[in-house]
Structures are given as C-alpha cells and as structure tokens.
Amino acid sequence: MTTVDEAFPSNWLKAADLNNRTVKVTIDKVVFEEIGQNNDKKPVMYFEKVKKGLVLNKTNATAVASVHGGQMDGWSGKEIELFSMMVPFQGQNVAAIRVRAVAEPVVAGPADPNDPLGI
Q1: How far apart are CA 24 and CA 52, in angstroms?
Q2: Number of folded domains in the chain?
Q3: Do 99 and 63 contact (CB within 8 A), yes or no?
Q4: Strand, coil or helix: what is 68?
Q5: 52, 17 contact by CB (below 8 A)
Q6: Sheet containing 54-55, strands listed edge to edge, beginning at the edge strand earlier in sequence
Q7: Domain-embedded: residue 69
Q8: Does residue 55 belong to any structural domain of this protein?
Q9: pTM of the shown model
Q10: 99 contacts 26 by C-beta, under 8 angstroms
C-alpha cells in the first residue's frame, strides 16, 4: 500500500516526520528558496545529518533568534530542538513543527516525599 506521504513526497520537514519525538539538531545553514505556488522566497533551515530542510515561519525564526541571535548567518553550528504541537491554522488545529533551545539535562536529587510528582 502506498501512503499519501509516499505519493506526494516533500523536500521539507513536516510534523509527521518527527513521529511524536523531540529531536536535537545542529543547524548547518539557512538559505532563501522559492516556496509554494507563488514562488515566494522564504528562509529554509538545513541541519547536519538531516536530508530535509525546515521552511521557517516567523514563529520558528523568532524562537531561534531568541536563543542564538537575530543574524541567521550566525546560526550555523548551533543546536536547537524540533518538536511537534497542535496549532490553529485556517480555522483548524493542525500539527506543526516548533523549535526551542536545547533543554539542559536535569539531574534528579533524592525524591522529596512531599512532592506530588515524586521528584
């Protein structure tokens, strides 16, 4: 059986590609490419060891800028996390890729008996 994704392959990452995982990636470069039917120039972020690029929207570009500065040329070699979440789009909730700073590892101490989460 052929899936819709197989029938209509994409050059760019989409939320389904993450398979409900949070993925740490290293930015390789950001280039402007013609996207969509109108061939609008949009920034596309590429990552080391990842075949597809991520077409940046303002939300994701701003999130990266808040961590790594506003100069896209300076993002090469920087790490971010990709994750998916439901967002409103044209009156519907759809899965979208979002970016954030790489979470620092948490070192758990002894369990606090008064903590409802047990940590």
Answers
A1: 15
A2: 1
A3: yes
A4: helix
A5: yes
A6: 54-55, 40-47, 23-35, 79-89, 92-100
A7: yes
A8: yes
A9: 0.81
A10: no
Q: Which helix (H) or strand (E) holds 61?
A: helix 58-68
pLDDT in tens, 28-61: 999 999 998 888 999 999 999 999 999 999 999 9
HSE-up of residue 78 (Cα within 13 Å, Cβ side): 22
Residue 70 falls within a domain, yes or no? yes
| In-domain check, residue 117 | no
97 Cβ contact list (under 8 Å, min separation 6): 13, 14, 15, 18, 54, 60, 82, 83, 84
Instruction: Answer with the residue of higher pLDDT: 108 or 75.
Output: 75
Neighbours of 117 (CB within 10 A): 6
Element (H, E) at 99: strand 92-100
Q: DSSP letter string over 19-44?
A: TT--EEEEEEEEEEEEETTTTEEEEE
pLDDT single digits (tens) 61-96: 999 999 999 999 999 999 999 999 999 999 999 999
Q: Chain-wide mean pLDDT for the chain?
A: 89
Bridge-partner residues for 100, per DSSP?
A: 81
Parent domain of 17: 4-100
In 3-state terms, what secondary structure has residue 73?
helix
